[in-house]
Amino acid sequence: xxxxxxxxxxxxxxxxxxxxxxxxxxxxxxxxxxxxxxxxxxxxxxxxxxxxxxxxxxxxxxxxxxxxxxxxxxxxxxxxxxxxxxxxxxxxxxxxxxxxxxxxxxxxxxxxxxxxxxxxxxxxxxxxxxxxxxxxxxxxxxxxxxxxxxxxxxxxxxxxxxxxxxxxxxxxx
Length: 173
Fold this sequence. Notes:
The chain is of the alpha+beta class. It contains seven helices and four strands, in the order H-H-H-H-E-E-H-H-E-E-H.
């Protein structure tokens, strides 16, 4: 534990963001996923690159495997050695990490500028990740999107006030 602080669990949170954070919101987890995506598949390489304790890395990898985000593949039998790879769910997190990186490049740039540049394999251009509408392809921002109730909309931890304000749930007495 860092400084004796307990991490809050979002397991009961009735919200896709809360559920996502329950799986990938621990410190180090996005960086572990980044390293695996960038080709560091062996435990020792990940531990060395991040400078993280072996115990912490073991716990994070076990949680990511349990959540179906990372898979362990044996590459040597004696002694047993494993490589870590992103599953389909893990690969679908990569654009999320790229969007977080783009935000960091703009608002929290390390000294000297962005440490990584991205190049789109299909066209060869360097690019800045953006979130775009899946229907029209236009970029979306916080000011031009309206959130509507979805099929799983319900009043619960993390959505109680929003559900009440949007008329999704009856007023509580």
